[in-house]
Amino acid sequence: MFERFTQDARAVVKGAVEHCERSGSRTVDAEHMLLALIDRGAGRGSFALAELGLAERGESVARALEEARRRAGLSQTEAEALAGLGIDVSEIVARAEEVHGVGAMSGGRKDKGRRGGHRSFSRGARDVLERSLRIAVARRDRRIGDEHILLALTARPGVAAEVLADHGVTHESVTRVLHGGGGTKAG
Asked: Is this prediction's pTM over 0.90?
């Protein structure tokens, strides 16, 4: 499938691996792809993010993703659902970090027993790549671009889509910028 990726899409995947390595994560996640897409600054996906006002709010997105990572990758919606059952995720995180250090629940601690520098892709990241292929095929695009990765990130439930939506970037708004009237700024 990777041979069908444009240079921009390949750069996003490579950037996601770099974000994964810098964070010390064991696997490349969908959130790493989002950060790489924001960093990229080139390509149709980056253009759409800029049009929607997200380019200048990358730090806010990174903070929201880090907060979700500290919650063991739970989205805010999932944390709220657990709260409805009487489970306070914030309290669990605080206690775990008190005993084991900040980021203890993130799964991002360095794996000292690793062989080589290869990072595998999490199920969520693989799902984003598969969805980007399906989106490209559905649009009859010959190549998978970074815009297809962005559309897949917004279409897949989870932390990346929730953080994007919290910043005014939805599947509908990205589709509108890429394929419709465009030019609508996020609120």
From this structure: no
Contact 149, 9 (CB under 8 A): yes
Single out the residue of 147, 156, 17 nearest to residue 75, CA to CA. 156
Query: Residue 171's domain spans which residues?
Result: 2-72+121-179
More confident residue, 162 or 88: 162
Separation between Cα atoms, residue 185 and residue 173, nearest integer Å:
9
CA distances from 86 to 73, 105, 124 (A): 19, 19, 27
Cα–Cα dist 80/87, whole Å: 9
Eight-state DSSP code of residue 139: T
Q: How far apart are CA 131 and CA 18, in angstroms?
A: 22
Radius of gyration for the chain, computed over Cα atoms and rounded to the nearest angstrom: 17
**Domain holding 152: CATH number?**
1.10.1780.10
Total domains in the fold of the chain = 1
Q: Please, what sign has the CA dihedral across residues 26, 29, 31, 34?
A: positive
